[in-house]
Amino acid sequence: MPEPVFLPVLSQNAAKSRVEIVMLDQDLSLAKTYNPDKETFQVQGELDPGLIQFYFSTRGGVKFSFHRGNYVKELNPNQSFLFYNPEKALPHEIILEPQAKLMALFVSVKKLHQWFLAESEEIHFLNNEQINRKFYADQALNPALAMVIDQLFNLDFNSNTLKLYYRAKILEILSLYFTQEEDKGMEKCPFLLDEVNVKRIRQAKQIIIERMANPPGLEELAKEIGLNTYQLKVGFKNIYGNTVHKYLTDYRMNQARKMLDAGQLRVNEVGYQVGFSNSSHFIAAFKKKFGVTPKKYLMFANR
Fold it and tell me: What is the DSSP string of 100-126?
């Protein structure tokens, strides 16, 4: 797969250094683009049709122009744009407003399949029915995703582990991007042999969500839904791809993030609401999930 063409349109005030391309391998690369000037800055892009293109705007306005301006897509700050066209390469121009920042991530379908094989049926353009079709999507960046992208713009080290750091951050970005809200009922294996047991497992999920501040233990939960603990553990892992404990922890952390975003509760109050009587345990769990403490998360989200 050839290297992505993602270059500035050379003009009197255009500096190639504004675009930094990081090639990690033939199936994975990213480009960081920043316009520090008072005038717009233009970049030309042309990529292999086998690449899925993710664009993340974190500051300033960004405009995509396709087919010589016949189609224009505007990207607001803290917004993402994904497109994939396996039929042909799509030459396009990207215009960055003054002070705009844009990070582009280019991933082959093969690479994404390797990373998210178990979830490929849940990612629309990766499932077997959609894999050869065009796909476009845009959505807002939540603070957690914007924070990771901001970290890549503000790297202050250069070592032999830099590429490893990039790979880790890209996986984090994709995981956050594809994370679905739990209440959408995304299930990894909805076709177990015993439909009655499937309903009981779903009931178990509802119970731990509704009682997340004081959930029942595993044995108590199994008894309540009419299964033994082995059936509960295996069935829950098959359907939701996680243990009951890990699923509940992830749900608690995502709910905590929403509460912090709302800005109505203090950190220790949020921890208590999601089931942590010890604030230090809540802070440790939040940091493990999102990479920062709740206090630092709030500082970034409210800046």
Answer: -EEEEEEEEHHHHHHHSGGGTTTSGGG
Task: Pull the structure tokens for residue 252.
Answer: 């608690």
Q: Is the backbone of residue 275 left (phi > 0), alpha (psi -120 to 50) or beta?
A: left
CATH label, 183-241, candidates 3.30.530, 1.10.3470, 1.10.10, 3.30.70: 1.10.10
Tokens of 102: 């844009």
Bridge partner residues of 104 (DSSP) = 31, 55
CATH class of the domain whose range is 5-179: mainly beta
Q: Is the pTM of this model over 0.70?
A: no
Beta-carbon contacts of residue 265 (< 8 Å; ≥ 6 apart): 259, 273
**Which CB contacts under 8 angstroms, 24+ apart, belong to 122-131?**
122/178, 122/180, 122/186, 122/188, 123/178, 125/52, 125/84, 131/86
Q: Return the domain boundaries, the chain.
A: 5-179, 183-241, 246-301
Phi, psi of 42 (to 5 degrees): -115, 140
Whole-number mean pLDDT of the chain? 78
Least confident of 14-18, 131-135, 190-194, 201-205: 190-194
pLDDT of the residue at 68: 67
How far is residue 18's CA from residue 40's CA, in Å, rounded to a whole number?
12
CATH of domain 246-301: 1.10.10.60
What is each CA distance from 75 to 64, 140, 141, in whole angstroms? 8, 10, 11
Angle subtended at Cα 175 by Cα 174 and Cα 178, rounded to the nearest 5 degrees: 80
